Amino acid sequence: MKIKVPLKKANRLVNHGPVILVSSFYKGRPNICTVAWNMPVDFDPPKVACVIGDDNYSFECIKNTGEFVINIPGKSLLKKVIQCGSVSGKNIDKFKEFGLTPIAASKVKPPLIKECVAHLECKLLRKDLAVEYNIFLAEILCAWAEKSFFKNNRLLVEKSGAKTIHHLGARFFAFPGNVIEVK
Amino acid sequence: MKIKVPLKKANRLVNHGPVILVSSFYKGRPNICTVAWNMPVDFDPPKVACVIGDDNYSFECIKNTGEFVINIPGKSLLKKVIQCGSVSGKNIDKFKEFGLTPIAASKVKPPLIKECVAHLECKLLRKDLAVEYNIFLAEILCAWAEKSFFKNNRLLVEKSGAKTIHHLGARFFAFPGNVIEVK
């Protein structure tokens, strides 16, 4: 079950640098792209930025609609994450192609990807930065996390179902091992 | 021993979302701040972005000089990383205070932090984005990594000396466990 994450804590879903799946909705259908380059930008209102190359169909989708969803996949989705990053969505529906389930977002038109651990519904703030640097700077309008993997206002990335994916470059990926609380 | 990393592979040092120590040099002395929010932005020329709050002394240092170094600390530096993020460098020298060693960079005035695993020498590209969003977008001029922890053009974050620090929010930190190569 997905629960709402307080907006001021929304950034914590990507604070530790995971690979994300960005979903968009353009010309009547959804699309997905895999993105390693992303970071929080502000707490209140919460902002986030990610980089999507201008040779991706998602670049066009989001530049033209101003809306996207950041979905945080767990390790079990690694194969689909790589698949989503390997083909263009210009002529295929990646949800159908790779067996992912779109569910309605609450504030934007692009769907959440049900199989992911957490989600940020985003509204683009600066189209010019997308055009000049491929940077999609956005406000977070709503945030969601799987109830069993979000406690004490953080993702439980040490749990096997919530281990996030961290891209080291090329075909190398790291996953969280231990988590510590510094007193 | 530190070796130069090919500039086109420089982004890989932060591709997986580690906490960084940002060093600067202003008014005759160096400063350090701890930053969780950072991401690569481009490959060639390589660009990177990080977020430094405008209430930090480092914000002023870098806005006024246009230069900084991204240093990537390993897990053994966690205590110093938290200390560097807990006090202002306006009136103290954090290198001396926390027992860190400045060594000369090759292209910029801010020093590298010797105890870190890797380094990116950076030149600020857009002062206006720092002022408006606290985003420091920069070109990477030179990149370094500890020879024993950089192989096949990636950081060996699965090795105990090169485990990077990933901030989950509050006082929670994750560290890389296993790394896999997807064939």
From TrEMBL, chains A, B:
Location of the Flavin reductase like domain: 12-151
SMART domains reported for this sequence: Flavin_Reduct
Cofactor: FMN
Pfam families xrefs: Flavin_Reduct
SUPFAM superfamilies to which the protein is assigned, alphabetical: FMN-binding split barrel (SSF50475)
Keywords: Flavoprotein
Single GO MF descriptor: FMN binding
Signal peptide (UniProt feature, chain positions): none
The family this protein is said to belong to: Belongs to the flavoredoxin family.
PANTHER family: FLAVOREDOXIN, FLAVOREDOXIN-RELATED-RELATED
Protein's name according to its UniProt entry: Flavin reductase
Origin species: Candidatus Aquitaenariimonas noxiae
Organism classification: Bacteria, Pseudomonadati, Candidatus Omnitrophota, Candidatus Aquitaenariimonas
